[in-house]
């Protein structure tokens, strides 16, 4: 398998740990370990205090798998495989795809979602959203592009980088089309539970379709990217078995401390999620005013879920040039749309961090000193 360089990750590698302000991050603020341990119940405290740093179970700690299953409806622990989030994409696609298969994937997006399929030797059709319609992904596109050799549809909702969340009717139509054509469905749900209105929350694909795999994890919604814990969930026993076997060639098993820390947080998930959602709502209010004040320079479609948006530069300027000048002169990292191979007119902006007000103030100062 030959994979192209991961442009987003290479760009982050240049600036993520040296720049003062990250206005491009897609996660919520990281939770200090001491705060996590303060949430431990008697069972998880004992697990932590007596933890031995040996190998762990390849499928994941049984208690962690049980807690993951509680997030879903109609799912049991035996349907849950603990992985690193990126690993989940890699093993799920390798477990189901063969050279010559056709794949349809939402785009722009996290490069692994379509690059791995291409590296396997699949034909990949990119499903692009309509910015003029609120970044909507029109399900009619799927009907028009399904081929005799189509095996898999890959979707990502809430969507990275636009923050788009389809109405439930559109999502159900995606599932119905997969079912009608006997396709597999891979659903990247890393920003689930960060909907601004909980009534907009979609069902997990694994709950409503037995040939679906759902990807979720601790990185975005729970502010625990550092534990590198995620999971794939499916009721398709054959796909599950293939993924479990493929994991023997990747990580084999997860970090013992990471599993227990994740278990503690999942048992307190409502409290954690409420804290992050409150911060997101505060930051969205600031961004509403920012884009109103700078309507001559930027245009944005307000996201419906998650921690990121994809504003457009209205001035005739390349997004990469704009983002690199901002990082040089204001010490602020924004993510140009060029890393998605999408266009050169947008940039990703993240608002899941507590220091967004300060970062936005610095960006305001930069714009004042660099008029249009």
Written description of the protein model:
Residues 23-363 form the Aminotransferase class I/classII large domain. Keywords: Aminotransferase, Transferase. By secondary structure, this protein is of the alpha/beta class. The chain has two domains: 7-32 and 270-364, Aspartate Aminotransferase, domain 1; 49-268, 3-Layer(aba) Sandwich (Aspartate Aminotransferase, domain 2). It has helices at 7-15, 33-37, 42-49, 62-70, 85-96, 112-120, 140-145, 168-180, 205-208, 237-246, 256-267, 269-293, 319-330, 356-369; strands spanning 21-22, 80-83, 102-106, 123-127, 150-156, 184-188, 212-217, 230-234, 298-299, 308-309, 312-313, 332-333, 335-336, 347-350. The strands form four sheets. The chain has a seven-stranded mixed beta sheet with strand order 2-8-7-6-5-3-4, sandwiched between helices. Strands 10-14-13 form a three-stranded antiparallel beta sheet. A two-stranded parallel sheet has the order 1-12. The radius of gyration is 20 Å and the shape is globular. It starts with 6 loop residues before the first helix and ends with a helix.
In short:
The protein contains 14 helices and 14 strands. It has helices at residues 7-15, 33-37, 42-49, 62-70, 85-96, 112-120, 140-145, 168-180, 205-208, 237-246, 256-267, 269-293, 319-330, 356-369; strands at 21-22, 80-83, 102-106, 123-127, 150-156, 184-188, 212-217, 230-234, 298-299, 308-309, 312-313, 332-333, 335-336, 347-350.
- CATH arch. level architecture of the largest domain: 3-Layer(aba) Sandwich
Q: CATH H-level name of the largest domain... which superfamily?
A: Type I PLP-dependent aspartate aminotransferase-like (Major domain)
Q: Provide the residue-averaged pLDDT.
A: 97
Beta-strand fraction estimate: 5-15%
Number of helical segments? 14
Tell me the CATH topology of the largest domain: Aspartate Aminotransferase, domain 2
